Amino acid sequence: MLAIFFVCLCLGTNVHAGVIATTSTTTDLVDTIVTSALFDEAAELKNIAETCFNNNNYEELAGYTVRSDEARILGHVLLGASLEAIGLTELRATLNLEPLPKWKHCFIPWPTDSDLASAPSLQAYYDLKEPRSFSRCLDNPFLFEHNVTPAIAYLDKRFPAIRKIFKLRFKKVRESMELVDRTAVNVMIHEFYEVHKRVDRAMGKLTLRKYPDCPETID
């Protein structure tokens, strides 16, 4: 178990902050944080960050396949993979593209400018540009793809605001553009990184909470 934990540390201080940009995209987007009479994004992120997440929660997140300390270690990876899957699912839906595909190998060459220019469709262009992560690929040393399914379901139940934040932010950006073209794809992917960064930061705080700050309780 200590060996697994050491590998987690080697992957980064915050294990689930691992989304890799396929290209560097610069935009002049204004802050699109969603605040309305019905939904306050900042308040929802604060609520996530201050949530007590104990061993019971980690065990449920892992689909009750492991217990206690091992569930916590696995939970860090599951949180990252689940967050990315939720965000990318909503991104594809907003762009009216195909659903998120099955996992592929991580070590696929980065697309060249020629690859992008010759993409035969918007779907093909997006597939080349979509953010990649070691948390969501066949080379992941910790997870099978089916391990992430119960984790996504748990996040949707425990923190429905996560999916809603992605959905509303993407909708707001999409409505500011007339066409869904390659430029729109680039802008929306940039927005994914911005939203992912904020939500991941909040989730990183909840994973730092440990007993006795978070006593074991029945939710």
Automatic annotation (TrEMBL):
The keyword Signal applies. Residues 1-17 form the signal peptide. It comes from the Eukaryota. Keywords: Signal. This is Uncharacterized protein. The gene is Cnig_chr_III.g11536.
